[in-house]
TrEMBL record:
UniProt xrefs under Pfam families: HATPase_c (PF02518), His_kinase (PF06580)
Transmembrane segments: 16-36, 285-309
UniProt source species: Holtiella tumoricola
GO molecular function, one term: phosphorelay sensor kinase activity
SUPFAM superfamilies: ATPase domain of HSP90 chaperone/DNA topoisomerase II/histidine kinase, HAMP domain-like
Superkingdom of origin organism: Bacteria
Residue ranges annotated for the HAMP domain, each copy included: 307-359
InterPro entries from the UniProt entry: Bact_2-comp_sensor_kinase, HAMP_dom, HATPase_C_sf, HATPase_dom, Sig_transdc_His_kin_internal
Compartment annotation: Membrane
Cellular-component GO terms for this entry: membrane
Keywords recorded for this protein, A-Z: Kinase, Membrane, Phosphoprotein, Transferase, Transmembrane, Transmembrane helix
Name of the featured protein: Histidine kinase
SMART domains: HAMP (SM00304)
Length: 568
C-alpha cells in the first residue's frame, strides 16, 4: 500500500495528503477534546460507582439483618422449640403447629422462598412458596455440617445450600444451628432460603441509563441484569473493593467489584461512559464549523500548489526523462527564478559533478586494478619461488625431512592465502598470517639476518583492510633495510586502535632512510605499486583520504612506516 502511494503522481500525493491531514485534524481534535473531558468523567464515574455500590451493599446487608432477625424469632419461638425438643414423640401435632408458625413468619417477609427446620433425628419440617427439592444426603455430609458447626452460633450463606436444594430458580441459603437456650447445645438446624428478589430489590431504584448490576457467588454470576460479555473473564471473587476501566474513548466501561462483608457474595456494577455524554450539541456545531473552514483552506492551498509547484515540476520532469535513457546531460527549460529555477540549476550542477565523478571513479578503478595486478605479478615472479625451492632442495639434501615438510606447508599456505578468492579485502588476521608465512619462508635463506615480532590488538583481528598492503612494506624492510646493514636485525609489526583509527606500524632496525631519499621515492615518476609509494597510493585511493601514512627514521638505526586508516 505504501509503495503504491509512493508511485503516485505528485498531484495525487498532495490530494491524499490533504485528505489525510483533514482526517488527522478531525481525529486529533476529537481525541484531545474527548481526553480532557473523559478523564474527568472516568474519575467521577469511579467515585460515583463506589458510592452507589456502597449504598447497594448496605441495602443488601440490611435485608440480611432482617433475615437474621427472622432466624432469631424462629430460634426463640416456643412452638418450634417444642417440635425440636419432642420431635416425633408427640406425633404430628407439634410438627403442624411449628409449620404454621413458620408459615406466618414466611408470609411476613416477601423475599423468603422457603424455611427448613431439622431436628437431631434427621427429621424436618418446611414451608415453601414454590416447589423445592431437598437432597437430604447432602445435608448429612460431615463436611457440609462441620462448616455450619464452625460458625459457632453464627450463620453461613450458601448458594442453593451448596447443592442441597434445587428448584425453578436459584436461592441463597441462610444456614445456622439451633442451640438449646439453657445448655447452648445443638438441637437442630435452620435453613432459610432467600429468593433472588432480595438482591434485585437492592438496586432496582438505581437501574437505568447506562448502569447495570449483578451479584456473584464465589466466581459465578447468579443474578442481575448484566451479561456475560460485560463481565468477560474478570475474577469476580474479591477480598477488597476493586474497579476496572475497559474500552477506549468512544465506548468505555467502569466495572466495580464490591465484596459484601461476611458473605461469599460480590456486588458487580458496570457503568457505560458513551460519547453522547461528552460532546454537547454546541460543541458539535463548533467542531463541524472548524472542519468546514479547514476543508476550504486546504482546497485553496491545493489549487495554489498545483499552479505554482506541481505544474512547473511536471514540466521540469518531462525534460529530464532523457536521463532514463542513459543520457546524462543538462536540461534546458524556461522557469521562474524561484525554488523551481533553483532546482533546475541544481540538477544541471549535479549532472556536471556526476560526469566528473564518473571520470574519477573510472580512473580510480583502473589504478586499483593495475596496482593489484602489479602486486600479484611481483610475487608470482620466478625469483622468489625459485629461491625458496632451491632452499627447500638444499634441506632435502641435508636429509632434514621435517624442515622440508614444514617449508612446503608454509609455501603452500602463503600462495593459497596470497592468491585465493580474488577479494580486494582481507581481515587483519589474514594479512598478518600472510606476513608470517612470507617471513617464515625468508628465514630459510636469511635466518641469521632478522627476527620478527608481532603486537596485534585482539579486537582488531576481524577488521577488514585492503589486501596485501603489508607484504610489500615488510619486503622493503628485509631487502632495503636489514640486509644492507650486514647484522641481525628486527622486523616488528604493530596494530592498534588510537583515537578511533587503526594504526599499523612496520618497524625494522635497518639502515634507515634520510629525508631526501624518502622524497625521491614518493615523487618518482615510476608508478609501481610494489613498495612504499605504490602501497600508499593504493590506500589513498581505497579510503579516499590523503593523510594515511607517516615515516619515522634515523639513518643507521631504524625505519618505521605507520599506516593510519579509518575503522570501517
Amino acid at each position: 500500500m505504501f509503495k503504491r502511494f509512493l508511485d503516485l503522481k505528485l498531484k495525487q500525493k498532495i490530494k491524499y495528503l490533504f485528505l489525510f491531514i483533514i482526517m488527522s485534524y478531525m481525529i486529533i481534535f476529537f481525541m484531545v477534546y474527548a481526553f480532557v473531558l473523559k478523564r474527568n468523567m472516568v474519575q467521577y464515574a469511579f467515585e460515583n460507582n463506589l458510592n452507589t455500590m456502597t449504598a447497594v451493599g448496605n441495602n443488601l446487608e440490611t435485608e440480611f439483618v432482617t433475615i437474621n432477625n427472622v432466624s432469631k424469632l424462629i430460634l426463640t419461638d416456643s412452638i418450634i422449640n417444642k417440635y425440636l425438643d419432642n420431635g416425633y414423640k408427640e406425633g404430628v401435632r407439634h410438627a403442624q403447629e411449628a409449620k404454621s408458625a413458620l408459615f406466618d413468619l414466611m408470609n411476613t417477609f416477601n423475599h423468603i422462598n422457603s424455611i427448613y427446620v431439622f431436628n437431631k433425628e434427621g427429621g424436618y419440617i418446611n414451608v415453601s412458596r414454590n416447589t423445592v427439592k431437598l437432597d437430604s444426603a447432602r445435608i448429612q455430609e460431615h463436611q457440609w455440617y462441620d462448616e455450619i458447626v464452625q460458625a459457632a452460633g453464627g450463620y453461613r450463606i450458601r448458594l442453593d445450600g451448596e447443592g442441597a436444594f434445587s428448584g425453578k430458580e436459584q436461592v441463597i441459603s441462610f444456614i445456622r444451628l439451633m442451640n438449646d437456650i439453657e445448655t447452648q447445645q445443638p438441637k437442630g438446624m435452620l435453613i432459610i432460603n432467600v429468593s433472588k428478589s432480595i438482591f434485585t430489590s437492592t438496586y432496582k431504584d438505581m437501574i437505568g441509563g447506562n448502569k447495570s448490576f449483578g451479584y456473584a457467588y464465589g466466581n459465578k454470576l447468579f443474578c442481575g441484569n448484566l451479561s456475560i460479555e460485560q463481565i468477560g473473564d474478570l475474577a469476580l471473587e474479591q477480598k477488597y473493593y476493586v474497579q476496572y476501566k475497559e474500552g477506549f474513548i468512544v465506548n468505555e466501561n467502569v466495572t466495580g467489584l464490591y465484596p459484601i462483608e461476611n458473605m461469599p457474595i460480590t456486588l458487580i456494577a458496570v457503568e457505560k461512559i458513551g460519547i453522547s455524554k461528552m460532546i454537547s450539541k454546541e460543541a458539535g456545531w463548533i467542531i463541524g464549523s472548524i472542519l468546514i473552514l479547514t476543508l476550504i483552506a486546504m482546497s485553496m492551498i491545493g489549487v495554489f500548489i498545483s499552479i505554482f509547484i506541481t505544474n512547473p515540476i511536471e514540466k521540469l520532469v518531462a525534460t529530464m526523462k532523457s536521463f532514463k535513457q542513459g543520457k546524462v546531460q543538462k536540461v534546458s527549460l524556461s522557469v521562474a527564478n524561484d525554488e523551481i529555477g533553483d532546482l533546475k540549476e541544481s540538477y544541471n550542477g549535479m549532472i556536471k559533478e556526476m560526469n566528473d565523478l564518473i571520470t574519477q571513479l573510472i580512473n580510480k578503478e583502473k589504478f586499483i586494478q593495475k596496482a593489484e595486478l602489479e602486486v600479484l605479478q611481483e610475487q608470482i615472479k620466478p625469483h622468489f619461488l625459485y629461491n625458496t625451492l632451491d632452499t627447500i632442495a638444499y634441506l632435502a639434501l641435508e636429509n632434514d625431512a621435517i624442515h622440508v615438510y614444514q617449508a612446503l606447508e608454509t609455501l603452500g599456505s602463503f600462495y593459497r592465502k596470497f592468491l585465493s578468492k580474488g577479494s580486494r579485502e582481507i581481515t587483519i588476521k589474514g594479512e598478518i598470517e600472510i606476513i608470517k608465512d612470507y617471513l617464515s619462508l625468508q628465514k630459510l635463506r636469511y635466518e641469521e639476518v632478522f627476527e620478527d615480532e608481532y603486537n596485534i590488538q585482539d579486537d582488531l583481528l576481524d577488521v577488514k583492510i585492503p589486501k596485501l598492503i603489508l607484504q610489500p612494506l615488510v619486503e622493503n624492510s628485509l631487502y632495503h633495510g636489514l640486509r644492507p646493514k650486514g647484522e641481525k636485525g628486527l622486523i616488528k609489526i604493530t596494530v592498534e586502535k588510537l583515537e578511533g583509527q587503526i594504526h599499523i606500524k612496520v618497524y625494522d632496525s635497518g639502515i634507515g632512510i634520510d629525508v631526501e631519499q624518502l622524497h625521491t621515492i614518493m615523487n618518482s615518476k615510476e608508478h609501481k605499486s610494489f613498495g612504499l609509494k605504490g602501497t600508499i597510493e593504493r590506500i589513498r585511493y581505497y579510503y579516499s583520504k590523503e593523510d594515511v601514512f607517516k615515516v619515522r627514521s634515523e639513518v643507521g638505526v631504524f625505519t618505521e612506516i605507520e599506516i593510519i586508516i579509518p575503522v570501517i
